[in-house]
Amino acid sequence: MQDNSTAQNTAKRFTLAEANAMLPLIRSIVSDIREVFRSVTGRRSDLHRLLRRNARTTGQAYADEMAESRADLNEEYDRIWFYREELESLGAFLRHPEEGHIEFPTIIDDREGFLSWHAGEDKIMYWRQDGMPLNTRQPIPVVEHLN
Predict the structure, then answer these.
(1) For residue 107, what is the DSSP state?
(2) Which pLDDT belongs to residue 45?
(3) Residue 25 lies in a domain
(4) Whole-angstrom Cα distance, residue 62 to residue 88?
């Protein structure tokens, strides 16, 4: 997912304790997202298989199967967007649906940034400075520096 959200244009800033307290709900939403994303990946493969078969197959049955596959895929993309909007209504951002990468706007050492959590992690242990690439998360500094 594209990182279109900056910490500066977000109203809510999370403390580490606030973000960690939200993890039970976040985990549930992320589990749903990852399940749908796996299904999307499978459906995309099926659609590519149908497209490759197009050279050899024509007719109404093929057209119906293509239309159904596209409709199913669009429905699943809509579900991912719904979950993304749900996370954003909580103040969190979905960065990578497949990995379950979520970020919470924060201020650390007087710098705008994001607390960073991936599915499977017990608690939030990383952050990244606003404007830095998503893969630059680093351990959170001493807790006293969190605002």
Answers:
(1) E
(2) 77
(3) yes
(4) 39
